[in-house]
Amino acid sequence: MKQLIAKMRVLETHMIDVAADMGYYGRFDAEVQAHSVELMGASKVLRTWIETMSGREQKSSPFSGCTNTSCCCKKGDKDGCIN
Asked: Checking phi first, is residue 12 left (phi over 0); if not, alpha (psi -120 to 50) or beta?
């Protein structure tokens, strides 16, 4: 899942970049400007998917909440670590 989320983040960045370029060229073409706005909106939808999937992944990980990566973590512990 981490690889998928990473790819989605790259895609989101690319969508925003292309939308900005389209916005620039859209000064000369109303249709391109409209598509620029649509693409920016789609990138925001993708952002919500990324946030949802990232949050779900963190909650399902047995290591969520562990601040010390060199230890074993137990779900539900305040400090997250078993010594």
From this structure: alpha
